[in-house]
Design a protein that fits this description.
Layout (H helix, E strand, L loop, with lengths): L11 H13 L3 H13 L7 H13 L3 H13 L7 H13 L3 H13 L7 H12 L4 H13 L10 H7 L2
Helix pairs in contact: 1-2, 2-3, 3-4, 4-5, 5-6, 6-7, 7-8, 8-9
C-alpha cells in the first residue's frame, strides 16, 4: 500500500519498514520487495550488493520471482560477479517453478544458444509451458516453431489454436 500509495499517501520509508519486518521473518515476498527497493534506491540508499543478497535469500526460499530476477543480476554483474553459468541455474529453477516469463525466457535462451545449449526440443518444451499459462509471446513462438517444423514433440498439437488464443 505504502509503496504505490494505494488508498494512502505513497511513503517509501514506510514501505521499507514493512518489507524489512517481512524479510526479518524470512518471507520471500518481503525479501524480494526489499531487494527492489535497494536496487532502485527507493526509501533506502541504492546498494546493488545488498539487493542481490536479499534476492538470493528469497530465491533460496523458493521464490520463482526472485530466482528470475537473479538471472538479470548475474547476467549483468549487478552486486555480484557476473556469471552466465549461475544465471542459467537460476533461470532453470524459476522455469521449473512454473513462472511463465522464466519459461519463455529459458526457451529464448535455448533458441539462441545463449547461456544454455541450443536445443529445439527444449525450446518448444519451455515455450509450450509458458503458452499454456496464456503468455502470448510464448504462444506466438510455439506457432512459429511449429510452422518451421522445429522441435515437434510426439503428442498431437494444434498450433493454430494456441496462437489464436493469445490474441
Amino acid at each position: 500500500m505504502y509503496l504505490h500509495g494505494y488508498g494512502i499517501a505513497k511513503d517509501s520509508a514506510k514501505a521499507v519498514h514493512w518489507f524489512e519486518r517481512a524479510a526479518d521473518q524470512r518471507n520471500a515476498a518481503g525479501l524480494n520487495a526489499l531487494s527492489v527497493m535497494y536496487q532502485k534506491g527507493d526509501g533506502v540508499p541504492k546498494d546493488a550488493r545488498k539487493a542481490s543478497m536479499l534476492l538470493l535469500a528469497a530465491a533460496d526460499l523458493g521464490s520463482s520471482c526472485a530466482q528470475f530476477n537473479l538471472v538479470q543480476v548475474y547476467m549483468g554483474g549487478n552486486g555480484v560477479t557476473a556469471s552466465s553459468e549461475t544465471a542459467a541455474r537460476w533461470i532453470l529453477k524459476a522455469a521449473q517453478g512454473g513462472l511463465a516469463p522464466a519459461q519463455y525466457y529459458l526457451g529464448m535462451m535455448a533458441l539462441k544458444g545463449r547461456v544454455v545449449k541450443q536445443d529445439d526440443a527444449e525450446v518448444i518444451k519451455w515455450f509450450r509451458l509458458a503458452a499454456a499459462q496464456d503468455l502470448s509471446f510464448a504462444q506466438v513462438r510455439v506457432g512459429w516453431m511449429c510452422e518451421q517444423g522445429r522441435g515437434r514433440q510426439s503428442e498431437p498439437y494444434d498450433s493454430d489454436e494456441m496462437v489464436s488464443s493469445g490474441s
